[in-house]
Amino acid sequence: MHDVALNPHHESHFESTEVVRDIVIGLSDGLTVPFALAAGLSGAVASTHIVVLAGLAEIAAGSIAMGLGGYLAARGDAEHYASELAREQDEVITRPHDEAEEIYEIFSQYHVSREAATPVLEALQKNPPAYVDFMMRFELGLEKPASNRAHRSALTIAGAYIAGGMIPLIPYMFLQHTAPTPGETTPIVLALRLSVAITLLALAIFGALKGRLLGTGTLRSALQTTAIGGAAAAVAYTLAHLLNAQG
After folding, report:
1. Which residues contact 210 (CB under 8 A, 6 or more apart)?
2. Does residue 219 share a domain with residue 123?
3. Are residues 133 and 38 in the same domain?
């Protein structure tokens, strides 16, 4: 007992899952979509300048679209929570018997008898706010969203998309004013190769960090993220090359 008091047990849980989810959504799409676009254009055009302009335009449009999507999704979650909260607040007053039975059903899922659950039910009935909060969490599985969740989600997703999208364009930016030299690799081909290398590396690092934060396995997450991003770029490049050859 003395050792327990001196060395209390502390559990470490990751609590910023919503922020991580937003970063994952924005960064993964930001790395993949502009990467695939640049790779696809590299098979159809010979100018790195065109690839850079198209990539920047896509990043601007994509970040706005992704941010707006995150905002609307978060607003939808908040509105759904408010609607369910109002319904539960009404039902604990107008349908006390039904709500009590729902409490018993919740505890029965954990193999707790009605007799053992009754004191908890009676304590909750004396505290309506806690009663409603209990039902929201354990009956509906809903957590109260943060008041600024929608705006924060939009900015996080959009920012992560921009950050990810700039990575595959870096080689094209540095080589867009480089003139082709006869007998050597053209700037567009060199930029494509460098873009593939740094983007796959970024996807691997991002996947590893995501796996570490979420506890899903560092190596597995890195390989999965890299494979998906690489496959998207390969398909885009192949299609653009084939269409260009037919034209």
Report:
1. 20, 24, 216, 221, 225
2. no
3. no
pLDDT band at 77 (very low <50, low <70, confident <90, very high): confident
Question: What number is the average pLDDT over the span 214-239?
Answer: 79
Judgement on whether residues 69 and 185 belong to the same structural domain of the protein: yes
Cα–Cα distance, 245 to 243 (Å, whole number): 5
Q: Are 67 and 154 in contact (CB under 8 A)?
A: yes
8 inside domain? no
In a domain, 96, yes or no: yes
Tell me which residue of 81, 88, 89 sits closest to 143, measured CA to CA.
81
Q: What percent of the chain has pLDDT over 70?
A: 86
Please spell the DSSP secondary structure of 209-225, one letter per residue.
Answer: HHHHHHTS-HHHHHHHH
Same domain, 218 and 105: no
Burial of 154 (0-12, 13-18, 19+ CB in 10 A): buried
- pLDDT, tens only, 17-58: 778 888 888 888 888 888 888 887 877 777 888 889 999 999
- Tokens 């705006």 belong to residue: 151
Range of the domain at 221: 16-76+149-237
Whole-number Cα distances in Å, 166 to 36, 92, 104, 244: 13, 52, 54, 25
Both 112 and 229 in one domain: the answer is no
Could you give the CA distance from residue 27 to residue 199 in angstroms, rounded to a whole number?
Answer: 12
Asked if 229 and 155 sit in the same domain, the reply is yes
* Domains: count for the chain: 2
Q: What value does the mean pLDDT of the chain take?
A: 81
